[in-house]
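Risk register update: the risk of archive-format incompatibility is retired. Evidence:
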Amino acid sequence: MSSAPPQLRTLDHPDSAEIRLEDVLHALSDPARLQVVHYLAGGGEASCSEIDLAVSKSTSTHHFRVLREAGVIRQVYRGTAKMSCLRREDLDTLFPGLLEAVLRAYETRCARRA
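Archived output:
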């Protein structure tokens, strides 16, 4: 009797052709989600727990889901961790300059608060 190979957990992501501007703008309209995007813009991928959001775990999960479903981030499971990375290439191709403008505005706002 052979055992079945373990099932890989996958998450739904829109194809790059399915990413809509209004969904991206909605995803980027929340300060917690902007914090996630800013963190991920630093490069590489990060687990959800690496990004310290001042919200409950369920709210944090919601924010990551909104970003993923809008096509702003890509998430994959690595063991039990859900790793996230920014879909910068897709966003820059579809909406040139948008991500850089949003990140610059976020950094300016953070600098004013400091």
